[in-house]
Amino acid sequence: MKDLIKAFSHNKAALGGLLFLVVIAIAAVAAPLIYPHSPWQMVGAPFQPPLSGPHLFGTDMLGRDIAAGILYGARVSFLIGIVSTAVALSIGITVGALAGYLGGLVDDALMRVTEFFQTIPSLIFAIVIVAIMSPSILSIVIAIAIVSWPPVARLVRAEFMSLRHREFVEASRVLGVPGWRIMAFDILPNAMAPVIVTASLMVATAILMESGLSFLGLGDPNLISWGYQIGAARTMIRTAWWMSFFPGVAIIITVLCLNLVGEGLNDALNPRIVRRRKA
Amino acid sequence: MSLVTRLQQLALVAAIGSMSIPAFADEPVRGGTLRMIAQPEPPTLMLGLNQQGPTQFVAGKIYEGLLRYDQELQPMPGLARDWSVSDDGLEYTFHLQEGVLWHDGEPFTSADVVFTMEEFLSEVHPRARGVLAHVEEIEAPDEHTVIFRLKAPFAAFIQSFEVSSAPMIPAHLYQGTDFRDNPANETPIGTGPFKLERWEQGSYIRLTRNEDYWKEGKPYLDGILFNIVPDAASRAVAFETGRVDVLRGGDIEYFDVARLEQMPDVEVTTEGWEFLSPTIWMQFNLRNEPLDDPRFRQAIWHAVNRDFIVDSIWSGYGKVAKGPVNSASPFFDDSLPDVEYDPERAIELLDEMGLEPNRRGVRATIRFLALPYTETYIRMGEYIRQQLQQVGIELDVTQTDVGGWAQTLGQWDYDMTINLLFQYGDPALGIQRAYVSSNLVKGSPSANVSGLDDPAIDELLTRAATESDPEERFRLYSEFQHEIVDNAYFGYLIEAHFPTVYRNNVRNLVNSAIGLNDNMAEVWIER
Fold first, then answer.
1. In CATH, which superfamily holds the domain spanning B21-61+192-272+499-525?
2. Which one of A18, A104, B398, B416 counts the least CB within 10 Å of its CB?
3. Which residues on chain A are in Cβ contact (under 8 Å) with B389?
4. Rounded Cα gap, residues B449 and B284, in angstroms
5. Residue A4 domain flag
6. What is d(CA A61, CA A38) in angstroms, rounded to the nearest whole number?
7. What is the pLDDT of residues A68-96, one digit of tens each?
């Protein structure tokens, strides 16, 4: 673990990304302290440009504070990103572990199901799911989770297939350890490195997908989000650029940071790169 | 009486003629295609079966009514060349234009009028059905004369022949068929100056000049193209880049109108909506708790700052609505109380009802059926939700598309929504339908979907409709307006002044009370 942190902190870009994410996360958590009013509330005159009066990023067409919207939107983005990734991971790991460990008919069946999900373009599929279930934070999490688990399943399956015949696994099997224990405690910890890297990138994808859905008007109507802010302000970009610019920047920075962190984790967890650094 | 009417008409025609000379010094020229936008895409062009805004706009060039109306809502000749009303107000005689042909070449006669009114509209057209309930019998003494005999005087009758209120339907195609399933609905056949040439779903609707149009030398245009552009920003760009000549109210967002107005050779008018006079209102489902309590409805009304809606959301294209009757109507009562924006008062009213805030500050939760018509309506919904939240009323938003909105509302499955009511001239035509208990029918968002069932209102509206003395009618309608506002049955928001944006080489664009919905036989393009 120490090595991991050391290796990760070698990567300046990844470290910067992580710091930035922490700052955004703190701001998101502290949003009600910084802006005690709801982000939907009209707090000033409409169409105020940035730095006018108390509004750092200006106000939108109803006089709502853009900066407040961005902070509250960060809560929604992070929440959806993390929860939907967690759900997708649990589906993906379960399916991949079973398929990879048991092999045979189970593997065939599970992989055909996985491929079925992979053949549908993910954003389109997510739109369909949200439209059917009617937009709410729950339906968005479900939709994103459903479209993003298959790559995890394939990854975990590949890891399990290569690990299941190793000596330490065989040893456990000889000792009569039940299959589920072998999967959960012997193989899975050794298969986690690539999964963690994938997960960090999945959070970024989930945030982008949530923004896309909100942009198209399929966001939770009760929660402000970056995608909603851009979607609502898009038509006014020629009269009030700041209304869509700042939420857009928020998305870019967050997704970029997540990618940097993912990259950093990949380097840190990859044994060959770590060894090269030590040498 | 007949002679007097005729003389008045002549005077009117002369007046319009002399007025238009300085404004349009140059002679109208033939040719050119007028490019506009149909938004959203109409579900059908069979105007007899569907009277939604886009259908009226496009099909208003294909179908015609017996009368047209000038911007003071006075009747002008349409398919009826002249008309007279008997002194007792019971008999209306229409003389039809001669030599009128349907688009398929069959002659238009009084038999078509009788079929349209007696069989077609009374079956499928809710608004016309209400009007026709006043009719005792319809008679066609010859091919070009139709006489309506009423059961009792009905002053609004003369205003019920506008094209969307009573479009003439060809009897030879529809008589004895199932009107709603008639294959002819796909290829609308009217008498209007333009015929349907091609409808590419999702892309465009093209109308072409009716060479056999009954009005000599009209229409001036070779055709009309309705582009289907589903996005407001793209519609604004289409106008800027010159791909369309005219933008109808609602095509683009209001903040864009001011920007386009700055362009050279571009004009903006808010005329041409006199007949429809749209009023936008918060409609409550009065059957459901706590909306059945007038204090709750008053609280909602007090919580919303309507000046903000007009100035910021509608960019000033409208004015605060005081009550059910549009201020442009002669029956509007200016003595109605102004309902002030007063959130404190709203909270007092909710306290009085015993609705205590819970831990989250919520006193009551009601369902809000959002009207997703354009961004302006979406923003208005967001604004109202926010304002109500501040007094402790939480709105649980139901998002749908426009079709889903109309259907949900028509099935009464809502607590509160935003709706837009067209007034159609006389209050007996456009307003009454949403308030009387006899129209408590499912299926149409313009029927009485709110469950308003107040014998006093029924009585006032019924008497006002059948009264022929204008002063007495005013008194009755005034009492009706006070009754509605005092009980806060609904929350009136804004009288919309829809702006039409057009290039100034398009001439004579708005020349009647229905503006762009009219048949455009007189519109021409200067070159």
1. Periplasmic binding protein-like II (3.40.190.10)
2. A104
3. 38, 40
4. 9
5. no
6. 16
7. 999 999 999 999 999 999 999 999 999 99
Q: What is the pLDDT of residue A255?
A: 94
The CATH code of the domain that includes A255 is: 1.10.3720.10
**Which of B255, B378, B386 has the CB atom closest to A42's CB atom?**
B386
Interface of B with A (CB under 8 A): 231-233, 236, 253, 255-256, 259, 308, 312-313, 370, 372, 375, 378-379, 382-383, 385-386, 389-390, 397-399
Distance of alpha carbon B244 from alpha carbon B260, whole angstroms: 13
CB-closest option in A41, A46, A235 to B375? A235
The C-alpha atoms of residue B239 and residue B504 are separated, in whole angstroms, by 13
Helix (H, G, I), strand (E, B) or coil at B494: strand
Separation of alpha carbons A24 and A77, rounded Å: 11
Residue B232: predicted pLDDT: 85
The string of DSSP codes covering B107-121 is: BP-HHHHHHIIIIII
Range of the domain at A146: 62-272
Q: Measure B381 CA to nearest chain A CA, in Å.
A: 11
CATH of domain B67-181: 3.90.76.10
CB pair distance less than 8 Å for A38 and B312: no
CB distance B399–A221 less than 8 Å?
A: yes
Query: A238 to chain B, minimum CA–CA distance in Å?
Result: 9
Q: Which CATH class is domain B279-496?
A: alpha beta
Question: What are the residue boundaries of the structural domains of chain B, listed by start?
Answer: 21-61+192-272+499-525, 67-181, 279-496
C-alpha torsion angle, residues B177, B181, B182, B187 (rounded to 10): 160
pLDDT value at position B16?
47
Q: What angle do CA A106, A112, A113 make, to 5 degrees?
A: 90
Element (H, E) at B140: strand B135-142
Strand order in the sheet with B246-247: B246-247, B500-503, B266-269
Is A138 a domain residue? yes
- Residue A37 resides in a domain: no
> Does residue B290 have a cis peptide bond before it, meaning omega lies within 30 degrees of 0?
yes
ipTM over 0.90: no
Q: How many domains does chain A have?
A: 1
List chain B residues with CB under 8 Å of A236.
Answer: 253, 255
CA distance B204 to B489: 41
Do B21-61+192-272+499-525 and B67-181 have matching folds? Answer: no
Count of other CB atoms within 10 angstroms of residue A97: 23
Min Cα separation A134/chain B (Å):
8
Task: Check CB contact under 8 Å for A38 and B255.
Answer: no
Within a domain: A128: yes
**pLDDT tens per residue across all 527 residues of chain B:** 444 455 455 454 444 444 444 444 578 999 999 999 998 889 899 999 988 888 999 999 999 999 999 998 999 999 999 999 999 989 999 999 999 999 999 999 999 999 999 999 998 888 888 899 899 999 999 999 999 999 999 989 999 999 999 999 999 999 999 998 999 999 999 999 999 999 999 999 999 999 999 999 999 999 999 999 988 889 999 999 999 999 998 888 888 898 899 999 999 999 999 999 999 999 999 999 899 999 999 999 999 999 999 998 998 999 999 999 999 888 999 999 988 999 999 999 999 998 989 888 899 999 999 888 888 888 899 999 999 998 999 998 887 877 788 888 888 999 999 998 888 889 998 898 889 998 888 877 778 889 899 999 999 999 999 888 889 999 999 999 999 999 999 999 999 999 999 999 999 999 999 999 999 999 999 98
For residue B398, give Cα distances in angstroms to A228, B255, B416. 16, 26, 10
Interchain contact, A61 vs B233, CB within 8 Å: no
In Å, how far is A121's CA from the nearest CA of chain B? 23
